[in-house]
Amino acid sequence: ADIVGLTDKADRKTFVDSFKDLDELANSMMKPTTVNKIMFDKLPKVTMMEFEIEVDGDITEFSEGFQEQYEQAFEEAGYIIAGYKNFKEKYVDDQELEFNYDAYWVYSLCHFPFSNGVFNDRPDAGIFAPCSVYMYVEKGGKTLKIGMPVLENWIAVNGIKDEKKAASVRAIDAEIIKIMTTKLGTKKVN
Questions:
Q1: Residue whose C-alpha is closest to residue 49's, from 183, 173, 186, 168
Q2: pLDDT, mean of residues 61-84
Q3: Order of strands, edge to edge, in the sheet holding 101-110?
Q4: Where are the alpha helices (DSSP H) in 40-100?
Q5: pLDDT tens-digit profile of 22-55?
Q6: Cβ-based neighbours of 3, under 8 Å, separated by 6 or more
């Protein structure tokens, strides 16, 4: 909640409460003998990377073209698309529910050599993996908004002190920003 800037107390409670069932299921299935809580006292100054690009023409057509370019750009750079979910399709098309966006999808993005370098001796750092990248167009909007938490959060939350590991985290952040702005033509907004 801190990373995404969730400040409303009721929203924060809803967010935290949303994990109760998952925690109970994990505890009942895995039967852990110890539970470690990760505590941190500060996050980086900028916790999210956010981008925008103007929708050119029909939203559906633009979205499909942008998704193709996104997948190709990241796969060419050695990333793996570990998941994809089209929320509008699930809410509107499948369940006929009201939805406040013209488009909304989320990608799960991984870079195995990077992850292995961080997780090899710090498996707890895996709480952030894979990286979730959201993309949406507000109802009636003409701007695709894209965002994801910066990997620099991993350094703060996991207390990474090894400068080589910290440098690799910062390098991946920079690489993602470069791909988004140079290969995909987005504008960084923060």
A1: 173
A2: 95
A3: 80-86, 101-110, 131-138, 143-149, 48-54, 187-188
A4: 59-76, 87-88
A5: 889 988 998 888 877 777 888 999 999 999 999 9
A6: 43, 47, 48, 149, 153
